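Box S2. Input/output pair 1.
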Amino acid sequence: MADTKLTLRVVRFDGGPESVVPFAGERMTLGTLADINPPDDPFLAPVQARFTFTGGKLTAEDVGSGNGVFIRLKVQVERDLVPGNELRVGRQRLLIEALPAAQPGVWGSKDPGFKARLVQIYEGGRRGDVFPVKDGEVALGREHGDITFAADGFVSGRHAMFTFKGGRLSVKDLGSSNGTFFRLMQPTVLDHGDQILVGRHLVKVDKGA
């Protein structure tokens, strides 16, 4: 039986009133036809996320939705990335891809030095711009950085930093206002204060006093 003090606070990513949902039983789902069904969100599947509370631990998982379930990264804490991972930064959805090894000059030079790329994914899965990542640091922001999204008001001036070093690609949030979100690939344990992005809604974990 779930702790009655456990609640999920649901709020639109772009602001709006917060709803408080007491956790009932061991499992709750979120989607348009689920236990928690936020209104006016065209990016939600009938059942998109599942939350499970057993043994004092709360986990979240994606149950196969196309738009994913994302967790907000802790500020200044590096998160390792591998090809196939996805991020949400402001309104941007970014897919991590390895750069094919046998493509010299693909970025306009004989030895471009790029190790990976970020692919912008639009609604419906259409691919947009491609941003290369090279050895060292690659900054992302609205106003400053190697990768900029000037028209996205939900991206901070300096939002996130990608680092490729020793064959390892990682990302960290630089203290942005709206956060950097990582798509869940498997059931993930949540702590008090963690935030999950599902469609256009944030789910904040409140384990009580």
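Box S3. Input/output pair 2.
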Amino acid sequence: MAKPRDYYEVLGVGRNATAEEIRKAYRRLARKYHPDVNTEPDAAQRFAEITEAYDVLSDPDRRKTYDQFGHAGVGAGAAGFGQGPFRPGGFSGWGGRGGGFRGGASSFDASDIGSIFEEMFGARGPSPFSTAQAHRPQPSRGRDLQHKLTVSFLTAARGGKESLRLTVPGSSSTQTVDVTIPAGIEHGAKLRIKGKGQPSPHGGGPGDLILTIEVGAHPLFRRDGRDLLVDVPITLAEAALGTTVTVPLLEGTAQIKVPPGASSGRKLRIKGKGIADAKGRRGDFLAVIQIVAPAELSPRGRELLQALAAELKNPRETGPWTS
């Protein structure tokens, strides 16, 4: 018969591993080899081997005995797991008031390991440590599918509907998924569409479709959270003398007064005219002043500007420029 594998080797940990390191190693391997999720021919046998190793090494007294005497000290069989709580052909005797497994030289309490699987698999199905269902795949949800969905700036701001065509998992056909885009959704946000993911391999419900929203650009608008920003170009004369400008909003237009002496980058605010989110919270509209110098000048215009330049103070002669 084959020589039983070292329990530390089975879990992939060192002999000085802490209890938490042993527990983490078991969780990782049990998730990989549990028969409900692994269809390889030797998955059940590997799972039993991993669980027996954890049974021994998670118990301080049994681990101490194993460290001193090896498999003989804890009652392991020639195959490494023939006389412990698991056998290659199935689970060994279940009984006793403690609800533990009986077999070999020790009593095995499945409550700790059962809690690990409850945490791993959630409410997808009964614990794998049930005598009636230990070897039968339990109904579990299908996998979630990930997909990107690009929406226009205005759809993201106002909300709306989008239709998405996807290939049906496991076939070459396609399906149309109708998606409701909530108002105010931001770039990178995720939407979950229930029941549009991978079908379950064991008769459970399908997974979900997880959409990552990508918001397209707009030629005028940009956003900062719920605030809506628009660059407003004005002339040198308008900046110096002040003016009134008609600006576009998400709905309609508004007039905004530019005060005399406005500089580029100054923000003029209209309260409550920004983007409203799904909860009805609305941001502000911000007109960002951009002074546009003329690219070409007539001789008369150049003459006037030169005369004006002689009248203007040099802005670099004050403030931090003088230090």
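Caption for Box S3: The first strand starts at residue 86 and ends at 87. The first helix runs from residue 7 to 11.
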